[in-house]
Design brief:
The complex is a heterodimer. Chain A has helices at 4-35, 54-61, 63-94, 101-109, 116-127, 134-141, 149-152, 154-178, 183-191, 196-223, 228-233, 245-255, 259-289. Chain A is mainly α. Chain A has a single domain, classed as Orthogonal Bundle (MetI-like fold). By secondary structure, chain B is mainly alpha-helical. Chain B folds into two domains: 2-59, no CATH class; 65-234, MetI-like (MetI-like fold, Orthogonal Bundle). Chain B is 76% helix and 0% strand. Chain B has 14 helices and no strands. In chain B, α6 (105-116) crosses α8 (140-164), α8 (140-164) crosses α10 and α9 (168-176) packs antiparallel against α10. Chain B is globular. Chain B starts with a helix and ends in a 6-residue tail after the last helix. Classes of the chains: A mainly alpha, B mainly alpha. Chains A and B meet through α1, α3, α4, α5 and α6 of A and α1, α5, α6, α7 and α8 of B.
Chain lengths: 290, 276
Amino acid sequence: MATQHSKTAARWMISPAVIMLLAWMIIPLSLTLYFSFLRYNLLMPGTNPFVGFENYEYFFTDPGFQAALINTILLVVGVLIITVVGGIAFAILLDQPIKGQGIVRILVIAPFFVMPTVSALVWKNMFMNPVSGIFGHMAKSIGLAPFDFLSQAPLASIIGIVSWQWLPFATLILLTAMQSLDQEQLEAAEMDGASWWSRFWYIMLPHLSRAITVVILIQTIFLLSIFAEILVTTNGGPGTASTNLTYLIYAQSLLQYDVGLGSAGGVVAIILANIVAIFLMRMIGKNLDA
Amino acid sequence: MARTISSRQTTVATIAAWFLAFLMFFPILWIVILSFKTEGDAIGTPFHVLTSGWTTEAYSAVQERSDYPKHFMNSVIISLGSTFLGLLIAVPAAWAMAFVPGKRTKDVLMWMLSTKMLPPVGVLVPIYLIFRDWGLLDTLTGLTMVLMLINLPIIVWMLYTYFKEIPGEILEAARMDGASLKSEILYVLTPMAVPGIASTALLNIILAWNEAFWTLNLTAAKAAPLTAFIASYSSPEGLFYAKLSAASVMAIAPILVMGWFSQKQLVRGLTFGAVK
């Protein structure tokens, strides 16, 4: 069916997409790599001498780097734990024959569609503000001193906000996987006297394992790049208490205008993301064969 | 006996599910409530907020801030524009890969996907400098292009999975009946492909509307869409709760409605077919 003629046509149809993505990927990537070896600051115009690995040295020895790396890991792992555990619970609950299931699902999924700047600002002002936020009012009404979330526990607060945004995603994926579970298998196990816990552990969890892996990998890709939530809530502070790698690189390149340093950081971020991406790609690739 | 247990179980599950769903949705519900309050009432205790009078003055105040409609339109333009351009490029590509698969089709698909895994901050500096030198900073053209490119892999991938589901036998049957290539595409394939294209467009509009890395870094006053505009409320204007709420409700309402219609596509689009 696929003649030579149609093959040529197919190539023409694919090439615009390929060329554009290739340009979008190769040009900036090679520039980032190139800049990372230059002493290049926008505030100091002039020649941009080649300095070898100097920027990388500065980047790795920057006290902010270590903090940012730890914060990035805490942020990703924290959100993953909350959303995966919560998502499994939600998926199992919503898979029951509950009344008004459609509406419940709509309400649970809604936070995912709220733009990041809105959800961050709403949590920052309406909930976490110690003076006029809901949590502050609640603390006062039972006689406690209000807690200033974003200055006392900035990273934990951001983990909370981001988890609220991503829990719906995990729930949706896991619920979809849950619905493909053979109900008869569960009933048979129940008849044989298997407790709820063993049904969960031996039937539901293994069935969900693939979806859980997908959730973890995809969320990790997105969570490594969390930016807007930090920008509008804490600006990475106090100090570097809530600075992640993405925010650190942004600050170095667009706030301190240090193109060389920011680019070195960019290269590091790309390498980190690629480690995760390799695993994800392998899973998706396997699925493509099936 | 078994019946009564299961019906009690259902009741418990129903109550738990509704309670948790209410908690998840509460922040959104709360800004909807606050948006109908005066500034004075909005910062009061929750009890005061619920018992005070209702007004739409925050909405008119936000509308009157001359720039709100402009930023809203910017969001509409970049999300529709990037989706339209993306489809224009992706439909032929996905089509060719699904119906005339070659030896390298899988490699091309996987490679496209890998571009999506690139952390945006890794290319922030060069893109920023290129935009600056080409005068694209803070322009709708530049932003539309970037959003189109970052979502192109998802569009191609989603369309591919939809097109793949169109059975090839139908084409052969049409050909046997003497249909020309043109009528084959027009009357057989297109009607079957439209739902997939529409779903893809829907998901892409949502993703573009909510994108908050490039929109924040590449725009200032002129081309800022709602994501960046709302971010400008971060201080000290954010303390005007009613106005912030009204602006937020208007910014998220259209996408919330679209999102509810696109739950299935979301799973397909964001997991690249790994979960169905």
